[in-house]
Batch of 2 targets.
Target 1
Amino acid sequence: MFDSFFFSYLDNLGVVDYTVNHYFYNHKSRETEIGRVKISYKGDYAVKSLLFLASRYQEEGEQYFQLGEIAQKQDIPEKFLEQIFLLLRKAGYLKSHRGMNGGFALNRPPENIHLGDIVRLIDGPIAPIACVSTEAYQHCDFESKCVLKPLWAEVREAISSVVDHITFRDLVDREHQFLRQQAEHVMYYI
């Protein structure tokens, strides 16, 4: 999807032939996880489950939730969520407590957890192409002649400026606003 959007954009600029040749020569042949602007299911599940915990934190304060309850309410396979929570706990975003009232809880307030940090933890660097990555830079032989490198850096900065400034507190607020709008929409048509 990103490729087709990007190539149609470049076609409008009149640089498709150059771009297609460079892109396929330098990037498709050695495709890696670096250089993809894509949120995986794992990243999406991490964000959804943290949003669930952040929302409950805002409403009820610090409270532990069973993994199975979170998995069920967020429609996430429990074994997969277990792997995700292990990463989040090791990185200090979650804490766990064993026992009857045990489970998982946020290890810090939602306003201190940024979306960009979680995306990078789970899915790696946020860069459309490896030669503009700040976390996992990879040299490209065509780099010194590449007219697109500044554009890719601009895309990276645009994405980073969004995800690095959104906290889970912001996401909880957005969720509440969305739910209010949905309720108003339903009431209006009844």
Target 2
Amino acid sequence: MLMVEFKEIFMSESYLRGMKLDLGKNPVVIDIGANIGFFTLFILTRLHGSRVFSYEPMPSNFRQLKRNLQMNPGLPVTCIQKAVTGRSGDITLHFDSSCKYTTAATIHEVEGKNPETITVEGVSLSDVFRENNLERCDLLKMDCEGAELEILYNCPQEIMDRIGNIVMEVHGGPEDYRNIEEYLRRMGFATQRRPVGMLRAWRN
């Protein structure tokens, strides 16, 4: 499964293909659902001078994320073992424990060989900005297995106004896609659907 993730991010460039990467000097990137760090490492190779804040709640994923970054010392990355959701406080994540590194931990119940749950600390997008003293986010990446609606809908306008670009994987059906696009347009973004469930949004 991780090889598929690697190919999608590094070889297919599934998040950024067709996207202009002129995000200004020293761009700030927030990686929600960092997993073991493929997108974090990829973006650092593409956006020189960038700072990345990587959020990953699952313990095994987070340990490997830290190991991968330790093999590349000195990178401008801050790793936070928390889930980004619509509110602050502990949340329950569902996952299949038969996978060593899960790419599908979710707030929704799951089916699998060994379904389990874990309680993790959750923070809102407002908390992310406040705790890291961020004035802006030039690129917000989200791959959070269905929590994207909750994150965006509970984000205040003043925080949304400080986000320049969004790349995200949308989980759910066509109605979820439409709802997210309509919401982002109301927040002042233009949107573009991408293959394999991806959505891109940028400031008009």
